[in-house]
Structures are given as C-alpha cells and as structure tokens.
Amino acid sequence: MSSFFVNPNSEAFFRMGLAKSVFKSTIYNDMPLDVYIPSIVFVQRFLMSKKRARVKLYMSHDAYFMFYRSLQQVVSSMKKMNKAAPVWHTIVSEVVKTENFAKLNSVTAKSDVLAQLAAVQFLSSLLSSRELNIPEADKQLSHALQQKSQSSQSSQSSQSGNDEQQGGQGDQTTAVGSGQDAEKIIAWVKFFTKTKLAKALNEALKAVKEYSESSHGAWEAVMMLGGRGGLNYSLDALSVASFLEHPEEFRKRVRLLSSTAMMMRLFSSIIPTSFSHQQAVSLVGGLDGVTRMWSEMQLPDVLPSELALAQLGPAGRALLASRIAQRQLTVWQRSGTIKPVVFVDKSGSMAGNFPGDDVAKISVATGFALAVYRRLDADVYLFDTEVEKMRPQEIVKVLLTIKADGGTDISAVLEEILRIGKRDYVYIIISDGISDADEHVLKKWVQTGLAKRTRLVLIDYYANYRWLEVLRGYGNVFNVKSLADFTTSVKNIMSR
Predict the structure, then answer these.
(1) Which of 4, 11, 53, 154 could connect to 127 by a Cys-Cys bridge, CB 3.0–4.6 Å?
(2) 159 or 97, higher pLDDT
(3) Number of helices followed by number of strands (H, E) in the chain
(4) What is the distance, to the nearest Å, from the Cα of residue 24 to the centroid of all Cα atoms in its chain?
C-alpha cells in the first residue's frame, strides 16, 4: 500500500516539514501516513496548547513512532544522517541507545494510546529545557557542517605541494575551526541527551505504567458496574488527555470507579438471604418460577435441567459454556419479599470521603444500590435538585462526571415516592445533606402511609426538618459517620 504523504519526494511531505524526520518511510509498515496523523497531531497540539511548547510536526511524528514501533524497527528505520535537522537526529539516535528507552519502549510498543502518552512526556521534558533550542541548534550545526564540508573541499583542491603559500594556510585554519565547531555542538548535544533525558525517560516510564494500570483497573470496574453495552456516553475522564492535563482528577475518577466496584461486591455478599426467596412468577412464553439469565451472579440459580448439558460430554459442555456467555440459560427467579427502591444523592458533596475512611460516600451509596439492583431487582434513582431513574451504565457516567457543586431537593424524592405509590415497597434514601420538604408534599406523604415505608441513611449530617422528625418517630432515620456505620445500617434496613 502506498500513500501520497509517505512519498519522501512529494511536495506535501516537504511542506509538512517531515523531510527533517529521523525515520525512513519503512517506519510506516507499508501503511499510509494519514493512518497515523491523528495520533501525531494529538501529541503536537497537546504540547502547544497545554504546555505552550514550540514543537514541530516532525518532532511529534518521530516521538510518536519512537514509542509506537518496537525498538528493533525504530533502529532499523532510522536514517544514517539528516543534514536538514542534525541536532534532532543526534538526540533521537542517542536516546534510542539508552537502557531507559528500551524499558519504556517495551511497554509502549504497539499501543497507540501509550505511545501518545510517552511522546508527550518525552517532548515536554526535552522542549522545556532552556539549555537547548532544537531548531536554532539545527541551523547552527547545519551551517558548521556545511562550512566544514566546503573548507575540506577547498583544502583538498588547493594542496598542490605549495605549503609556503599564505592562502593555503588560511584555508586550513578555517577548515579546522569549522570542524571543531561542529564537533563541539555534537558532543554537547550527546552530553545533554545522556544527562538531561535519562531522568525524563524514567519519569515517562512511571507515567505510562501508572496510566496503563489505572486505566485497565478503571475499565474493569466500568464493566463490572454495568457500563458495557454501547457506552453511549463520554469517557473523557479516563483519556490520556485527562491524565496529562488533570492527573489528580484522573486519579480521583479511577478511585471512585474502583471503590464503587469494591463496595458492590461487599454489599452483594452481606445482603441478608432472609430478604429474598424463591418466588414463582408467570412469564409470557416462559415457565412459572423461572426467568432468563441476565448476569453471571445468577449461576447458582441455574435450573438443574440446564446444568445437565455438562453430562453430555465435550459437546454438551461447549453448548453450556456458549449458553452462559450468551445469557441463554433459564434460572430460578429471585424476588424480594418487599420491593426495594433506592434513592442516592449525587450532589457534589457526596464525592467526599467518609470521615476517617478512604472511600467516597458516592462509591459506598452507589455500590450498595447496584448490589440491591442486581440481587433483588431494586429500582435505583439518583437525585440532587431533580430525580432520575438510572441504569447501571448511567451510574458509571455520574461517577465520571460528579463535581463539587449543586444542592439537593428532598421534595422531588418524596414526590417520586408518591408517584410510585406502592405500600409493599421499601424506599431507601441515602444522602449527606438534605433540604426541608414542601408542606403539601409532606402532608400527602404521611397520609398515604408511605412515610412508614421510607428509610433514610444520613451520612455525617444532622437537621430538625419536620419530615425528618416524622421518620425519626418511626425509627427510620439511620445516622452514620463511617463505612462500618453504613454497613450496619443497611443490614438493619434489609433485614426488617
């Protein structure tokens, strides 16, 4: 496959400044250059806009391929020399010889995202140095090398055996001086590369490993929490750009996701079994007491008739594995003796940690809500000034976008409870700071008897609103100050 851009003799190639690249076109693996342009341009634009670095396209081009290709291909694709950018060529040539580069390249090779990250880190350190202006140094070294070449040719043509001529001695002096200038510049660039960039490569390796491990863990948490199935929302919070521009915010999002997944596992294991039982339900086109599998967590409830496939030899086991993967098995329907409905406060303050615990309040609350959703088919709502019923993937979006602002409106929650209106449901509200309720809504909530079905888990907060006094009268307010308190409270709520 060929490309207009890859042709080193094309006008476009020279216009883009890529004639100064240290690499031959073999670095593209017979693919057109425009396949790689988005990644190369990301590196350049990020450095120019966020780091205010003066980076040329050929620099971002070479830095990206240094880390995207294997060390062997990087070395084999390098030009022996590039007179148009000799300093840049010297820097890259020296860098790829180092042990630190080999370690970094072994992690980033074949990963477009990690190569972008490493390229940004590398160029950021290189171009932030006040000791070296690469374009200017390239001009000086090119001029010195040109003078050396011209002086050498002049010296050779003038050597006719007449060493006594004064002009011949002058030409030799010029040639030696130019050669020393070029050699001094090259020696200094090599010294700079070895001393200044070794640390930069180490820092880049740390950043690449952190991002790789963190993003992998975050994606595992997203999938566990139910974020699969289209992911029709932005995941910019987990991008390389987010990590580079706002590293602490990136780490915070990763912690929120990981902590929520951990909390979901915790509460899934401690929800009292007495709260659920085998219950026969009538399903259109199905059997009484069973339903279609929708989660691996239902494997213990698979009907014996389905498991019998495993007794039919390799073909039966393969069919069983396929049906598990495609969620085609029939399982016992588990349903709660009461239907739980969970309302989780998603206001900004919930992103803070429990007092004395290194876990966010929103992670604990949503982890619990998702566990009840999966185990007992609960309805889950998130609220601040508005109330919205949520699916798991939408909860993931909240974890990725929650900010420390916004308030809460409890009247909206009570209105939703009134709208649902089921007196055999239990309504669980989790918040760290609530408002007073509208008098009309409060009166109706009490008169319908739904107040008796409402439980409030209040995290490190106290108030004397009338609707709270109503709940306290029923013993339905659970004040918590730690994760241990929260766990005890929800156990009590779920065992009633």
Answers:
(1) 53
(2) 97
(3) 19, 10
(4) 33
Q: Which pTM does this prediction carry?
A: 0.73
| 449 CB-near residues (< 8 Å, 6+ apart) | 423
Q: Dmax over Cα atoms in the chain, in whole Å?
A: 120
Q: Please say whether the beta carbons of 374 and 458 come within 8 A.
A: no
Contact 425, 453 (CB under 8 A): yes
Helices marked H in 226-312: 240-245, 247-270, 304-307
Of the listed ranges 93-107, 206-220, 253-267, 318-332, the least confidently predicted one is 318-332
Residue 333: pLDDT band (50, 70, 90) is low
Question: Which sign does the torsion angle of CA 7, 10, 12, 15 carry?
Answer: positive
Domains in the chain: ranges and CATH: 11-158+166-208 (no CATH), 269-274+335-495 (3.40.50.410), 280-332 (no CATH)
Task: Calculate the average pLDDT of the chain.
Answer: 82
With a CB cutoff of 8 Å and minimum separation 6, the contacts of 289 are 278, 279, 280, 281, 332, 333
pLDDT tens, residue by residue, 445-466: 999 999 999 999 999 998 889 9
Residues in contact with 309: Cβ distance below 8 Å, sequence separation at least 6, in sequence order: 316, 317, 319, 320, 323
